[in-house]
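Worked example 3. Consider a protein that binds beta-D-glucopyranose.
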Amino acid sequence: MEKHVSAVAERGRSQKQKRMENIKITWVFVSHCLILLLSAAILSAEEQVDIRRSDFPHGFFFGASTSAYQVCNIADGTSGDIANDHYHRYMEDIEIIHSLGLTAYRFSISWSRVLPSMRETWWVNQAGINFYNSIIDNLLLRGIQPFVTIFHNDYPQELEDRFGGWLSSLMQEEFVHFAETCFKHFADRVKYWMTINEPNLLAEVTYERGLFPPARCSPPFGHCASGNSDVEPLIAVHNMLLAHGKAVKLYREQYKSKVNGVIGITVCAYMYTALTDFKDDKEAANRALAFNAAWMLDPLVFGDYPPEMKRYHGSELPSFSSEERELLRDSIDFMGINHYGTLYAKDCIHSHCICNDSVYTLGSDRLIRGFVYTTGERNGFPIGEPTGMSQFFVVPRGMEGIVNYMKERYHNKPMFVTENGYSSPGNEDDIYQHDVKRIHYHQLYLASLAQAVRNGADVRGYFIWSLMDNFEWSSGYALKFGIYRIDPQTLNRIPKTVCYLVQRFLEQFQPWCCRIV
Ligand code: BGC
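Given these inputs, the predicted complex is written out as structure tokens:
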């Protein structure tokens, strides 16, 4: 009898649980529909662009990006050591990528996980190799193309302690050794390689503004313990470019043939537009472009720094020997473009600039910045809607602008938009409101990209930054670019509404728009 009563109670409990589950699922579904409807209402008629998968060429990759240090490890509270424990949850993350219908996943290899110490020890950590092997195999099994960034900001501390990291030419051979280790183990399956993520931005935030470790700078850029903001960024980039060239040569000679892979680099690629119609400001906008993305890409396509830089810089701009120019010329198969925003540019050669209104305008009147003051405001009005990142504004036309610039300057070399994403201002407590904005952001940026493609730009893929909220460098966990949220207690992955749009767009070939039909 007792047994019977407890069985009935048990049945009742599980029915109740099921009912609750159903209510929860219905509620999630209804709330997502409401958000989509709400977002439709928010967009003005002019902004209602329907963007479809078929607006992009056949075989165009749609993917999401992460980097090792930002997602990999386990929580401790203060650094990327927290991150999202991707190291243990990568299978779940791959299932997520698959369920969204994404066809590519861009991730980086943690240098110290694979090579915990310097080249001279020849120590390869097999556990690290196994981890990346498993990621690659499981992606391929699900038809997802791995895009591997070899270096995305993190290297073993020993390289910093022994010779000062990228400020030393010794770093070039260390990088080549790391790259070769990656090629040796993974080039039989990985087809898309990027050597270094954003050398230009890394040099700026590390050696010019002193915001990233080892935090080196000099006034007026900041007050660091040591550094030289006018010179060190140039040296660091020079070493990164040569490291890239050497790794690419090795790849092409020994590994490319394995799966006929391709190799490129990713650069931070802001779009700049003149603050006024004056000729000087128009020239300043061109200079800003040359001192930013072209600083990286001219050497890798044409074999030397941009003429715009050489015109002003003297001996502080390192020079390439003729063998080095040969090594670098044509050393990319594609350009990876990380594009987040557009800024106004104002000339500081012929007119006076106020250069201390934010950490990013300090030093605008210096040569290292190309004597260009960049700002997101004109007459008190922002260039686009502000986001969580002070220098990123929502300016969708900038996507078409930067892609066209690349197309013209580099004779339409193949491109991938390797990062584009939205971080909400505030803490995303009001998830729905932020979700609508994120949906809107990707919709409009994709539409602008589609326009560039229609005009003939050879763009072959688009990657959302980021698959999930993660460790946003000096902003910690406050800025959230992810299309998945991470529950801080459980580290569970929770889809934001944008995920439903991605799914509809990719799997059901529905337009990426905010109307529910
Ligand atoms: C970097 C990412 C970063 C993102 C957003 C890019 O410059 O590659 O690591 O999280 O911008 O700030």
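Take a moment to read the result before moving on. The mean pLDDT is 90. The pocket of beta-D-glucopyranose is lined by residues 67, 70, 197-198, 201, 268, 338, 419, 465, 472, 481 (CB under 6 Å).
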